[in-house]
């Protein structure tokens, strides 16, 4: 009997440990107020990661074995149950700062959604003035393989000694793949991700020469010398323009030493800066929304790359290969089911079997391909929550509403003009195709904005001002109103103020108030609020909810923390939390 | 009970420990200092701006330490132990998958078995179900013989020394460049696990008897398209068979016609066919109608001489873009002895799991006549995998007067079909009937003599 009792105690303990340990997301005041991660200090050169580059294993693992493993992870499973029954919140991203934002790092740089980029900068993306391949000298082909993904292409060296990966379009869909690569790379760069420089170029086949040591990975992927026949075979499959030139996308090789893909789960053991498990990084979780926006279905590990800078001696993390974005799936148009279900999607298969064919999936519609240069890209059936990459991405599986809201903020920061500018860089010859892509991108952006701004209180850009030391004025912007996704443009805001007490009871110091302007008055300035102990700071929590129907329904809370340093004697913003 | 109380106490103690006094509800009693704050809250706003205090994003100096992953604790790692064990278990698979991709093992394997164009080669076969209960073997094929679209195939399947089946097949879609097609196939069977249920439509499951059969059937068919989807063919057949009681008990009685005897016979079968299906391997719409007469005459004795005819109609109705297909099938076959001849029992019309009545064991229903209706609903599940739900009803009979509504036997079930637009198919089906539940697993090379038209199934 005693043994049983002990066993049951252990079981309960395991259950509770798993539910509660580490699953409380740190409240904002305890998170660092850091805007720049300190991850550029020199480190020893890490080993090359080799596992993620094999798409077959990566896909099989993520579709089957990883999912089973996650289920077997007692902590994660019990936490999932705890979340489901409302005992706890989902585990939030671990690299966010006190303001629920991502610090700049070797992974991500806050760009357009923080400081609007000019139209020129948006159009330029990651490219540089002298970065394009030299168009005057010969291009020396140095390597190739039977298929790069399934997009034909090879690697060249130009007269500047720069290396480029040349990728071409499929014969039935001229412009489709190259345009998708160029457009998506610019969106992702503006969003803040590290991407290679992508250039649209006209290739004169006569300029291509074979390098002395050029290799070709042919049958069974065995390297052999590259020949003119190999180049000819690749170019034969590429649509030619009337003047004999070929349209290509030149992706400049990234600076540094390649260290293989970064995985979307776990961390590098040999990079001391890599302290957050990748599936817990906000920029990778939030990437799900960006990927949905661009229909970037191929977010496998092999489409990420770590580069080690041998001079500065740190690792930078890049996203690469956007040939399966927008309407393209490498050398084919996207299938309608991609973006809506995984390649092997047990949930969809189960629904199909249980429904015995009577369940008709919304995307089972006749393939509507408006333009061959665009492929299959649509917004009618697009649902940001339902959107799926080709196979599960561990970071995406952990995306919480707060992560998604962060992603939605970035996506909705692109105005119509921004989108027109970036889509124009795709170089579509048919202006109707360009307009179509821009329209679909805008419609997808709007769906994302409407969806996530309705699930999370979309208040942002907080500012606090103190008047005479007695009153605080808290201003903010409602992104849903600002970006046109709110049901009406004069919502009501309900707020109350609590004073946080360490190791004690938080107290309400301002009962609930309702206003109709994004400006809250809090009569508790630094002169009024006294700390319990002189050396203590004072922290106020302002809980704000929004209603668009005169108070019938209120959004989840945004909680703004204001901290008064007793020495400085003034309040300042110290953090932000969002309920979801 | 005591254990449960202990458990609840344990849960409560943990809960209290975790929540403790760290966080309290917001509407708890105010602290002494709050009275001052409340009072201050009633004071009017001041309009004088003191200072803006929003933190700067642009400072290059980190204002605090870089966030740490609080999820990466020893407790969580401990709780993830089963996941780590699972990862260890899958490690060999990982290594294989990586080697598979790295060394292009698929193409190496295909090159081992198939030619460069993938139109011919040799591949191993495994079978469960069909004429034999199970077996392994080889198939050699060339679907583009002489680079002229001619097809040839040789297959062999072995279960035990007494249970073997082989097939040779050749098809010329344009005989000497004409509109005639030539198809010839040899079917050789040697097995000792044949089932025969004496009593025809009235037989019971426990009436099963066992026989051994050695058989060679060689067909030569000449056919041509008449007009549109209408075509005609004439088949000549050599049939050599020897049936004996099996060593397995109970054995088929020797008085059953054709048992414990051999036969060498010739047959001729004219047939006419209307086939408007969009794809013979994965039909989604159209009709398949076929009628055939068969005259069989024993050449070494006068014991067996019979006439047979069969009519089959299949209708494929596309539902929702053709992704879902409703299939109706009707099948009638009848044989009669002529000129005082009789029909060997193993040539009688048959309804069983291989012949349209999928919930019944091999050889379950056999008589001179067979009537069968099937309805099947096919729907997409994943990629080239279709689900199906079906209802079969059929009966065997001796004379048409025997046909009765109450004599129909039913089977119903469902399954999955792997289908492609090429000559490959695989299905797994579960069918239930009054005799029980049967599972069928098979590929498209059935090793079943096409006595009953099994196209589309």
Q: What is the H/E string of chain B?
A: HHEHHHEEEEEEEEEEEEEEEEEE
Q: How large, in whole angstroms, is the Cα Rg of chain B? A: 35 Å
Rough outline of chain B:
globular
- Helix content bin of chain B: 10-25%
Helix content of chain A: 25-40%
**Major interchain interface with per-chain residue totals:** A-B, 105 and 92 residues
Number of strands of chain A: 20
- How much is the average pLDDT of chain B? 80
Provide the β-strand percentage band of chain A.
15-25%
Query: Structural class, from helix and strand content of chain A?
Result: alpha+beta
CATH architecture of the largest domain in chain B: Beta Barrel
Task: Count helical runs of chain B.
Answer: 5
Number of domains of chain A: 3
What's the N-to-C terminus distance of chain A? 44 Å
Strand content of chain B: over 45%
Output the strand order for the largest sheet of chain B. Answer: 2-3-4-5-6-7-8-9-10-11-12-15-16-17-18-19
The biggest sheet of chain A amounts to: 7 strands, mixed
Give the count of helical stretches of chain A: 14
- In one word, what is the shape of chain A? globular
Within CATH, the superfamily of the largest domain in chain B carries the name membrane protein fhac: a member of the omp85/tpsb transporter family
Provide an overview of this structure.
- The complex is a heterodimer of chains A (580) and B (457).
- Chain A contains 14 helices and 20 strands.
- With 580 residues, chain A is of the alpha+beta class.
- Chain A folds into 3 domains: 2-120 and 265-455, no CATH class; 131-258, 2-Layer Sandwich (Phosphatidylinositol 3-kinase Catalytic Subunit, Chain A, domain 4), CATH 3.30.1010; 459-578, Immunoglobulins (Immunoglobulin-like).
- Chain A has a 7-stranded mixed sheet, with helices on both faces. A 5-stranded antiparallel sheet of chain A has the order 16-15-18-19-20, with no helix packed on it. In chain A, strands 8-9-10 form a 3-stranded antiparallel sheet, with no helix packed on it.
- In chain A, helix 11 packs antiparallel against helix 13 (431-455) and helix 12 (416-424) crosses helix 13 (431-455).
- By secondary structure, chain B is mainly beta.
- Chain B folds into 2 domains: 83-113, no CATH class; 114-443, Porin (Beta Barrel), CATH 2.40.160.
- Chain B has 5 helices and 19 strands.
- Chain B has helices at residues 2-19, 32-41, 74-79, 81-102, 105-113; strands at 49-52, 120-128, 134-145, 150-160, 163-172, 180-196, 209-227, 230-245, 261-275, 286-298, 305-319, 324-337, 349-351, 365-367, 369-382, 385-397, 409-419, 425-433, 436-443.
- The longest helix of chain B is centred in the N-terminal third of the chain and has 22 residues, at 81-102.
- The two termini of chain B are 59 Å apart.
- The model of chain B is unreliable at 1-54, 58-63 and 445-457 (pLDDT under 50).
């Amino acid at each position: 009997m005693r043994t049983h009792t002990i066993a049951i105690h252990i079981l309960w303990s395991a259950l509770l440990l798993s539910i509660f340990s580490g699953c409380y997301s740190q409240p904002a005041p305890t998170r660092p107020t850091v805007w720049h991660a300190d991850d550029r200090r020199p480190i020893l050169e890490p080993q090359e990661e080799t596992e993620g580059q094999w798409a077959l294993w990566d896909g099989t693992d993520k579709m089957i074995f990883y999912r089973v493993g996650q289920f077997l992870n007692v902590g994660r499973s019990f936490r999932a149950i705890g979340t489901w029954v409302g005992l706890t919140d989902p585990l939030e991203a671990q690299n966010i700062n006190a303001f629920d934002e991502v610090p700049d790092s070797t992974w991500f740089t806050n760009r357009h959604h923080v400081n609007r980029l000019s139209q020129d900068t948006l159009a330029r993306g990651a490219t540089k003035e002298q970065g394009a391949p030299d168009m005057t000298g010969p291009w020396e082909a140095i390597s190739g393989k039977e298929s790069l993904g399934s997009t034909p292409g090879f690697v060249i060296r130009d007269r500047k000694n720069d290396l480029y990966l040349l990728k071409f379009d499929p014969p039935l869909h001229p412009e489709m793949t190259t345009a998708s690569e160029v457009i998506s790379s610019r969106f992702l760069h503006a969003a803040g991700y590290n991407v290679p420089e992508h250039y649209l170029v006209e290739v004169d086949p006569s300029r291509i020469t074979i390098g002395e040591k050029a290799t070709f990975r042919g049958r069974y992927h065995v390297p052999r010398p590259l020949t003119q026949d190999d180049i000819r075979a690749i170019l034969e499959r590429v649509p030619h323009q009337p003047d004999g030139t070929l349209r290509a996308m030149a992706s400049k090789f990234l600076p540094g030493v390649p260290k293989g893909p970064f995985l979307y789960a776990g961390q590098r053991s040999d990079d001391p800066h890599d302290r957050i498990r990748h599936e817990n990084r906000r920029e990778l979780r939030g990437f799900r929304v960006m990927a949905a926006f661009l229909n970037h279905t191929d977010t496998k590990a092999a489409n990420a790359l770590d580069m080690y800078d041998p001079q500065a001696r740190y690792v930078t993390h890049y996203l690469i290969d956007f040939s399966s974005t927008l309407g393209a799936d490498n050398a084919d148009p996207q299938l309608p089911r991609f973006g809506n279900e995984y390649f092997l999607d047990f949930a969809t298969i189960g629904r199909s079997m249980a429904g015995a064919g009577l369940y008709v999936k919304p995307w089972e519609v006749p393939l509507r391909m408006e333009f061959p240069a665009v492929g299959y890209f649509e917004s009618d059936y697009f649902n940001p929550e339902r959107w799926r990459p080709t196979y599960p991405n561990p970071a995406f599986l952990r995306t919480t509403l707060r992560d998604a809201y962060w992603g939605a903020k970035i996506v909705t920061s692109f105005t119509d003009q921004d989108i027109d500018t970036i889509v124009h860089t795709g170089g579509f010859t048919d202006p109707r195709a360009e307009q179509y892509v821009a329209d679909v991108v805008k419609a997808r952006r709007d769906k994302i904005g409407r969806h996530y701004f309705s699930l999370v209180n979309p208040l942002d850009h907080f500012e606090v001002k103190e008047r005479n030391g007695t009153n605080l004025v808290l201003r903010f912007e409602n992104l849903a109103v600002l970006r046109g996704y709110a049901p009406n443009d004069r919502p009501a805001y309900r707020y109350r103020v609590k004073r946080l007490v360490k190791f004690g009871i938080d107290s309400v110091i301002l009962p609930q108030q309702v206003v109709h302007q994004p400006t809250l008055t809090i009569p508790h300035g630094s002169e009024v609020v006294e700390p319990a102990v002189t050396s203590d700071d004072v922290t106020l929590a302002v809980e704000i909810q929004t209603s668009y129907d005169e108070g019938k329904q209120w959004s989840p809370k945004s909680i703004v923390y204001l901290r008064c340093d007793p020495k400085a004697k003034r309040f300042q913003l110290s953090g932000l939390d969002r309920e979801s | 009970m005591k254990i449960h109380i202990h458990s609840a106490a344990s849960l409560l103690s943990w809960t209290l420990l975790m929540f403790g006094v760290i966080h309290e509800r917001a509407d708890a009693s105010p602290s002494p200092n709050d009275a001052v704050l409340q009072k201050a809250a009633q004071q009017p706003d001041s309009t004088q701006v003191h200072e803006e205090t929003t933190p700067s994003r642009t400072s290059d100096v980190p204002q605090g330490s870089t966030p740490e992953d609080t999820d990466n604790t020893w407790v969580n790692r401990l709780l993830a132990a089963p996941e780590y064990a699972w990862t260890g278990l899958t490690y060999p698979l990982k290594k294989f998958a990586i080697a598979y991709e790295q060394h292009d093992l698929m193409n190496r394997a295909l090159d081992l078995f198939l030619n460069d164009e993938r139109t011919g080669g040799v591949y191993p076969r495994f079978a469960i179900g069909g004429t034999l209960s199970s077996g392994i073997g080889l198939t050699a094929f060339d679907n583009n013989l002489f680079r002229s679209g001619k097809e040839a195939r040789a297959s062999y399947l072995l279960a035990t020394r007494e249970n073997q089946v082989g097939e040779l097949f050749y098809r010329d879609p344009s005989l000497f460049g004409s509109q005639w097609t030539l198809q010839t196939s040899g079917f050789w069977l040697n097995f000792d696990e044949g089932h025969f249920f004496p009593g025809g439509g009235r037989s019971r499951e426990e009436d099963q008897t066992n026989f051994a059969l050695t058989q060679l059937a060689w067909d030569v068919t000449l056919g041509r398209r008449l007009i549109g989807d209408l075509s005609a063919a004439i088949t000549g057949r050599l049939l050599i068979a020897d049936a004996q009681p099996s060593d397995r008990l109970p054995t088929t009685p020797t008085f059953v016609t054709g048992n414990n005897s051999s036969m060498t016979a010739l047959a001729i079968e004219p047939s006419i066919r209307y086939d408007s299906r969009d794809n013979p391997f994965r039909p989604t719409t159209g009709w398949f109608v076929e009628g055939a007469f068969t005259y069989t005459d024993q050449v070494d004795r006068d014991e067996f001489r019979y006439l047979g005819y069969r009519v089959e109609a299949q209708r494929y109705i596309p539902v929702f873009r053709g992704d879902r297909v409703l299939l109706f099938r009707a099948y009638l076959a009848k044989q009669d002895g002529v000129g005082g001849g009789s029909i060997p029992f193993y040539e009688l019309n048959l309804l069983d799991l291989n012949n349209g009545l999928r919930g019944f064991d091999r050889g379950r229903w056999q008589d001179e006549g067979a009537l069968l209706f099937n309805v099947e609903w096919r729907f997409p599940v994943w990629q080239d995998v279709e689900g199906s739900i079906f209802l079969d009803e059929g009966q065997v009979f001796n004379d048409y007067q025997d046909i009765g509504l109450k004599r129909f036997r039913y089977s119903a079930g469902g399954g999955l079909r792997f289908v492609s637009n090429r000559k490959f198919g695989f299905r797994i089906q579960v069918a239930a009937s009054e005799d029980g539940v049967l599972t069928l697993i098979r590929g498209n090379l059935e090793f079943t003599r096409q006595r009953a038209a099994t196209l589309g199934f």
